Prior knowledge:
Helix content: over 70%
Oligomer: single chain
Shape: globular
Structural class: mainly alpha
Amino acid sequence: MSSDALITHFVGASALILVAAHSGGWLARRLGQPYIVGQLATGIALGPSLLGSTAPDAYAVLFPAAIGPALTGLAQFSLVVFLFAVGYELDLKVLGVRARSSVNVALASFAVPMAVGSGCALLFGDALHDLGMPRDLSPGMVVFAGVALATTAVPVLTAIVRENGLSRTVPGVVAVSAAGVLDAICWTVLAGALLESGGGGGGGGAGGGLDWPWRVLLTVGYVALMACAARPLLRLLLWRTRLEPALRMALLIGFALGSAWVTHALGLHVIFGALLAGVVVPREEGGTLDPDLLRPLLSVASLLLPFFFVLSGQSVALNSMTGTGWAALAVVTLLAVVTKIGSGAAAAVLGGLDRHDAWTVGILLNTRGLTELIALNAGLDAGLLSAPLYTVLVFMALATTLLTQPLLLLNARFATRERRPESARSTAVKPYAG
């Protein structure tokens, strides 16, 4: 394919991806679902499983193999910008007076799904082998199976909390705070699994030639360097020199891309470098977020993230799903829902919340969405997942996210039904007993 034809195909495919994915997000929101669910569903629909099987000629014209590297590069760029913004927003100080309850909820909703996921990977090796996994699973594969069940999508959870008017309620605050702690734990454990496997993002990095103890040592050193040197330098360069907004944005995105390149070279995925870069960027005085920085970051990320969803959809192979795959999807989804909601709700009850508020916390933490998808792509790139198992886990992430809103409404209905008789009894006129 000539360079002119390549550019033409890429421009046409980009137009389709942007319009279709954002239209799908708009439709999902109209149906009471998170915007991201519609984008993910659109990405899967544009992949080989649906468009490729129903209209193979159109699929070959729209997405020729030659434009794959360009789409992958744009998807990785959008992911780096998005996670840079996520890292910048991450602030565990929001725990406040509910710190102990939130931390306990986070630990419980991590430990229980993690143990169940890793245990099932060890117990059901034959079923996993039928899904393309090796008979002898590496430690990284076992750990990753646990992380796949333990992950919670903080951005999607936050959006659901805001859209349901829960931002200033006790269960909303506890859920968001616990999700922040849980997010940090999951990213750390996922980094360890990738270091053990030696897998990088999109084909492995330079770190793949090093033994994992060296990769761990270099990674710890890089994190220390970023925390001790990068933060004060950024504070001096960006906030005290009064740079123009456009130049400051360019420098920060370049910083995030450079950090992502370093973690890729260390054998990790680019996502960790982007997150770390966002975490070390200094905030405004008083610890507030800079809206002139955050707003354009989120705008660029939300505009371009559909490329990541389409890239994820390219790896979803519905046509290869066997009876074992569908059975695995049912079991994994059930385990994911029960372990996450059950552990989160139980910990919330022990933390002093009433039953219905505790169920709200557990249901919110069951949202996986984009964070799960990012982790799954990192695992697939690192060889910790087979393509059939990846497909199963993508649909599990979609199903658990879709269930969040209906379960919240159901829980609210039960709470209203139980409280109504109590209110009626308290206001009723008592009969005269004399």
